[in-house]
Amino acid sequence: MTITSVVAVIAGLGGLAGIAAMSRLRTLRSMVVVVAVVAILATLSGVVAGIVGMAIEGPAGNTVLVVIAVGGAVGLGAAFFAARRVVRESRRLERAVSAGDYTAPKGLPAELQGIADSLEEAYARERALEGARRELVAWVSHDLRTPLAGLRAMVEAIEDGVVTDPETVGRYHAQIRVQVERLSGMVDDLFELSRIHAGALRLSRARIGLADLVADTMDSAEPLARAKGVRLAASAEPVPVEADAGALTRALGNLVVNAIRFTPSDGVVTLRAFARDDAAWLLVGDGCGGIPEADLPRLFDVAFRGESARTPGSDGGAGLGLAIARGIVEAHEGTIGVVNDGPGCRFEIRLPAAH
C-alpha cells in the first residue's frame, strides 16, 4: 500500500473510534479531549508513515519523533485547558439558572453569553407576564364580585318575599338580565384574550373592504351612542385588505365602544378609513379629554387601569377591550397605537393593504 493509503486508513479508523467514543460521552471536557487526541493521532500516523516510507533513520528520525511528541503534548494540554474552561463557565451558568438568578453572568464565552442573555430576557418576559396575570386575576375578581353581589341580593329579596310588588320585581328582573349580560361579556373577553395569549387565535382571511367594515361597526355602535347622547361620524375609502372580517370588526368595535363610553354627552366619536403609504389605516377619535403621556404606552396592556376616568364602569366589561384589539391587529401583521389629539384621543390601526 502507498503511504497515502496507510495514512487514510489509520486516520479513518481513528476518526470512527473518536465518533464512537463521543457518542457515549456526556461532558464537554471529555469530548474536546477526544477531538484533540484524534487529531493528534491522525497527524502522528501520517508523520510516522512518512518516516517509514522515506526510511528516515538515526538522529533525523529521532528528532522528528521528539517534535511530534512535544506537539502532541502541547495539543493535549491546550485541549484540556479549553475543555476545563468550557465546563467551568457552563457550570457557572447552570448555578445561576438553578439559583433563580435572573441576571446573566458576565465574562462567559460568546456562545454561552448569548444563551445567558437570552435566558435573562426570557425570565424578564416571564416575570412581566406573571405580574400581569396576577393583576388581571385581582382586577377581574373585583369586577366579578360587584355584579355577583348585586345579583345575589336581588334574587334573595325576591325569594324571601321582601320584594313582592310587580313593578319592583320587574325592575329587579331587568337589572338581573343586564348584569348577566355584562358577566357573559366579561367571560367572552377573557376567553378571547386567553386564545390570543396562547397563540390559538385562528383567522379566516378573505378580501374585504374597509368601507364595509366601518359601516358594520357604526351600525352596531349606534344604539350605545344614541343612549349616551354621543354623535357618530364616519368617512371611509374603499380600501381592500386581506383580513378576518369578524375578528377585525370586533377589534374596531372595541375601540369605538371604548370611545363612546369615555366621550361626554353631546360629544363626537369619529371613525376614518383610508389608504396611505401602501397601508390601510383606521382612525378612531373620541372626546375623552386626553390621557397622560406616561400612560399612553401602557394603555393596551392587560389589566392596566391608568387614570380613574378610564377604568371600567358599571356599563363596561372587564376592561380588556383594548388588549383584545391589539392582539387581533397584531395577528393581522398590523400595528395599533394611540395619541392625544384635540379634545380627546386618536386610536390608529395600520394594516397591510391588499394588492
Compose a concise summary of this entry.
With 355 residues, the protein is an alpha+beta fold. Helix content is 62%, strand content 13%. It has helices at residues 3-24, 28-54, 58-98, 110-159, 166-197, 210-228, 245-261, 321-331; strands at 206-209, 231-236, 240-243, 268-276, 279-285, 335-341, 344-352.
Structure description:
- The protein is of the alpha+beta class and 355 residues long.
- The protein folds into three domains: 3-101; 131-197, Orthogonal Bundle (Helix Hairpins), CATH 1.10.287.130; 206-352, Heat Shock Protein 90 (2-Layer Sandwich).
- 62% of the residues lie in helices and 13% in strands.
- It has helices at 3-24, 28-54, 58-98, 110-159, 166-197, 210-228, 245-261, 321-331; strands spanning 206-209, 231-236, 240-243, 268-276, 279-285, 335-341, 344-352.
- The strands form two sheets. The chain has a five-stranded mixed beta sheet with strand order 2-4-5-7-6. A two-stranded antiparallel ribbon has the order 1-3.
- Helix 5 packs parallel to helix 8.
- The longest helix is centred in the middle third of the chain and has 50 residues, at 110-159.
- The chain is elongated, with a radius of gyration of 35 Å.
- Mean pLDDT is 77; it is low at 307-316.
